Amino acid sequence: MRVMGIDPGLTRCGVGVVEGRPGAPGTMVAVDVVRTDPEAPLADRLLALDNGLRALLEAHRPEAVAVERVFSQHNVASVIGTAQASGIALLAGARLGLPTETYTPSEVKNAVCGNGTADKRQVTSMVTRILRLKEAPKPADAADALAIAICHLWRGGVKARIAEAAARSQAAPTPRGNLR
């Protein structure tokens, strides 16, 4: 399975594409950062982000998109920009009919480091080891995007199977009569 992980940001949006299967290390296909001009009007920045993500989606053809879920910080302006970028990322995947999933930072850290409170240095180190890279991906946004893709690769399949099983059980006919 090929997964595009996106670390949303309005100024720097990390993008990482990983190919593999659950339980296996995986292979890095691509890593990039979509940048927007902080001085440009908001609408132009969102359009630039959308265009950049669309181009990367078309170039790498992932089968799924995973986006880091926005969480509350002390800087409300930063959260709003990240939330807007997250919406663009989710829309970019949905526009192509790709399954999309969001993961909290602690879910991603736990998946790649085994510790939901790991710091950025630990995440980058583990991404480098898991993907067997010669050097750490830079900047941190790129390493985070790869971590998000790895998280989905390892956990997304399980989530999908659970959802499919739940849907099948809802669709299954209910037995009639007395069940003694």
Automatic annotation (TrEMBL):
- Which InterPro entries does the UniProt record give? RNaseH-like_sf, RNaseH_sf, X-over_junc_endoDNase_Mg_BS, X-over_junc_endoDNase_RuvC
Q: How is the cofactor bound?
A: Binds 2 Mg(2+) ion per subunit.
Assigned keywords, A-Z: Cytoplasm, DNA damage, DNA recombination, DNA repair, DNA-binding, Endonuclease, Hydrolase, Magnesium, Metal-binding, Nuclease
Q: Which reaction does it catalyse?
A: Endonucleolytic cleavage at a junction such as a reciprocal single-stranded crossover between two homologous DNA duplexes (Holliday junction)
User: Which terms does the UniProt entry file under GO BP?
Assistant: DNA recombination; DNA repair
DNA damage among keywords = yes
Matching Gene3D superfamilies, A to Z?
Answer: Ribonuclease H-like superfamily/Ribonuclease H
Q: Which residues bind Mg(2+) 2?
A: 68
**Compartment annotation:** Cytoplasm
Give the enzyme class: hydrolase
Q: One GO molecular function term?
A: crossover junction DNA endonuclease activity
Q: Which Pfam families match?
A: RuvC
State the signal peptide span. none
Q: Which PANTHER family match?
A: CROSSOVER JUNCTION ENDODEOXYRIBONUCLEASE RUVC (PTHR30194:SF3)
> Partners and quaternary state?
Homodimer which binds Holliday junction (HJ) DNA. The HJ becomes 2-fold symmetrical on binding to RuvC with unstacked arms; it has a different conformation from HJ DNA in complex with RuvA. In the full resolvosome a probable DNA-RuvA(4)-RuvB(12)-RuvC(2) complex forms which resolves the HJ.
Q: Which family does it belong to?
A: Belongs to the RuvC family.
- Please report the name of this protein according to its UniProt entry: Crossover junction endodeoxyribonuclease RuvC
